[in-house]
Design brief:
Blueprint (H helix, E strand, L loop, with lengths): L11 E2 L6 E2 L5 E3 L6 E3 H4 L3 E4 L4 E4 H6 L20 H15 L2 E3 L1 H4 L11 E7 L3 H12 L8 E5 L16 E6 L11 E6 L3 E4 L5 E2 L4 E9 L2 E9 L6 H18 L5 E6 L9 H12 L3 E2 L17 E5 L5 E7 L10 E5 L9 H5 L4 E3 L3 H17 L6 H19 E3 L19 H19 L10 H32 L4 H12 L10 E3 L2 E3 L2 H13 L1 H10 L17
Parallel strand pairs: 7-19, 8-9, 15-16
Antiparallel strand pairs: 1-2, 3-4, 5-6, 8-20, 9-11, 10-11, 12-14, 13-14, 14-15, 16-18, 17-18, 19-20, 21-22, 23-24
């Protein structure tokens, strides 16, 4: 907006008082919609944005998406004696925050997440209770064709001993127990690809009323990096949190191999609000060379201002490929935050696919079985088979073709040909998938009805969305119960299979390990070769010890004492 008295060269009515604007009068103009008002009429309607040095009317201000950009007012001046490299780093930070975006499932499902090569994909979310939202989150994650490498969860509200009840196929998990005697708003956990090795860093892992942290050193085929998840309880002491988080950032930076460290979580400090807690937090992570990757509001709750309290910090912005929020996988008031980091080498990925390019999977879910029965009945009724050998061969061919048509899934196209992963949660049917999509549609419809004046939006739309979400959660739980009830019915009279199913529900089933060892510098996955190498090692332990002991340089020969020592 401009306050130039010569701005209006013609008579134009003020949109507030409807009186004409004359040339000699001071006016205010919105930089977005070019609305012009008298200075006196507009001083309570317009707001000044210091980050871009412009004025906006309240309507445009309400429609504008507020983002976090701490260096937006800084630009390089070639006549300034300051270091140009510092400005170059600031430009990288500005661009990374500017490129933070809302991401749909379509964008996530693109090949390599839309990048030239497969990045390290990080997923972080405040789930607001594993017992309430885990099944819904797993159902939504199964809609994705691409698999995240690491999933960080906060506010699990469970203890470490219960982590096996919430397994995700293809992932290993490490959880930290919730704070003692606290029922809600505590507990954190990390899921990571089962091909990775993760070791807890005890110095960086802590739990207190003010902060909860869980840090791992993750390695995969020579690649090592520090990964941590942090949760700050809103009721905790902010001063103590600042002291702890400064140590966390400082130690993470010093321990990181090749300066690769990523820290994510729910920090409960709004980066979109200018206050002393935000300024102190900024000084801490910028002072330890950590860069935030999320600039959009991550927490949206009816009746509350949108806030950016969830984030993912990286220690080396040169490896950052992109970041954003997942709009289609929201199970709480927090949007899932994602980050893509260029650390994975092309030569170290997709080994399993390269070994078996033509391996075939058969998916015998309930929906496919019903489809098979219907198609086979239709084919048998429409075809006549003779009672000779050729007729029998035709009958067998008909059954085999129907099986392949209904159940066959190519391993490389497993996630591309199906909208969900039936192997992970086979109780999710096409109807539930459509219901989940409809629930997302209701949420987006209600969200569009919100504005600055009416933060709650249309109450009828919100009630419709809330009731539908509640019914959908009940349907998912009942579908899961029905699925396992049928499995128990099939196991009647067989105690061994019954207990296997019970242990599966308890999370105590035996995990299939994918062993890999370095033998003479070569990565070996063949179990027989690994077993033979172990046998060779243990069978030669005694022989090697004897050889080392008999070497002259290893024999403990003491010098002959002088005769005078006996006098």
């Amino acid at each position: 907006m401009d306050t130039n008295p010569n701005l209006a060269t013609m008579r134009e009515p003020c949109e507030n008082c409807s009186k004409d604007i004359f040339t000699h009068q001071k006016v205010l103009m919105c930089s977005s919609c070019n609305k012009i008002l008298h200075h006196k009429c507009g001083k309570h309607i317009f707001e000044y944005d210091q980050t871009v040095d412009q004025w906006f009317c309240c309507d445009c201000r309400a429609m504008k998406v507020v983002t976090y950009s701490p260096f937006s007012s800084i630009s390089y001046n070639k006549y300034s004696p300051d270091d140009p490299e510092a400005y170059a780093e600031i430009e990288k930070i500005k661009n990374s925050l500017k490129n933070c975006q809302h991401m749909s499932n379509k964008l996530i499902n693109a090949k390599n997440f839309g990048f030239d090569k497969r990045p390290l994909a990080i997923f972080s979310n405040n789930i607001d209770g594993m017992a309430q939202n885990f099944d819904t989150a797993l159902a939504k994650l199964s809609l994705l064709r691409n698999k995240f490498d690491i999933l960080a969860i906060t506010e699990t509200n469970i203890n470490e001993s219960h982590k096996d009840l919430y397994k995700i196929p293809g992932y290993s998990s490490i959880f930290s127990s919730k704070y003692p005697n606290k029922l809600k708003g505590s507990g954190i956990g990390i899921y990571f690809n089962e091909m990775y090795n993760g070791n807890i860093i005890d110095e960086l892992t802590m739990i207190s009323p003010d902060i909860e942290t869980l840090f791992l050193e993750i390695s995969y085929k020579g690649i090592k990096f520090i990964f941590g998840v942090v949760y700050r309880p809103p009721s905790g002491n902010l001063k103590n949190f600042h002291q702890h988080i400064e140590k966390v950032f400082s130690m993470s930076s010093s321990k990181a191999t090749d300066n690769h460290a990523l820290i994510c979580g729910d920090f409960n400090i709004n980066l979109l609000k200018n206050d002393c807690s935000k300024s102190k937090f900024e000084n801490i992570y910028f002072g330890n060379c950590f860069i935030p990757t999320i600039s959009l509001s991550t927490h949206e709750k009816p009746g509350c201002e949108p806030s950016c309290i969830d984030n993912i910090f990286v220690s080396n912005i040169d490896y950052l490929l992109g970041s954003g929020l997942l709009t289609d996988i929201k199970v709480s008031h927090h949007y899932p935050t994602v980050c893509f980091y260029d650390i994975i080498d092309d030569s170290t990925q997709n080994d399993d696919d390269a070994e078996n390019p033509s391996s075939i999977h058969y998916d015998y879910c309930e929906t496919h079985i019903l489809e098979f029965n219907a198609k086979l009945t239709q084919k048998l009724s429409s075809n006549e088979f003779s009672a000779d050998e050729s007729g029998f061969s035709k009958f067998i061919e008909c059954i085999n073709s129907t099986i392949d048509e209904c159940f066959k899934v190519d391993s490389q196209m497993l996630h591309k040909t199906s909208k969900r992963n039936r192997i992970e949660n086979p109780w999710i049917t096409n109807g539930l998938i459509n219901s989940i999509n409809y629930k997302n549609f209701l949420y987006e419809k209600w969200k569009k009805s919100r504005d600055k004046k009416n933060k709650m939006g249309d109450s009828e739309l919100y009630d419709k969305y809330k009731n539908y979400r509640k019914k959908l959660r009940i349907l998912i739980n009942s579908a899961k119960n029905k699925f396992y009830s049928k499995k128990f019915d099939k196991c009647q009279g067989n105690s061994k299979k019954t207990w296997e199913l019970i242990n599966e529900l308890r999370g105590k089933s035996i995990a299939k390990s994918k062993c890999s060892f370095l033998v003479n510098g070569d990565l070996v996955k063949d179990r027989r070769i690994i077993a033979n190498e172990f046998n060779k090692y243990f069978a030669s332990v005694a022989h090697n010890l004897n050889e080392n002991a008999l070497r002259p340089e290893n024999l403990p020969i003491s010098p002959i004492p002088d005769f005078s020592t006996y006098i």
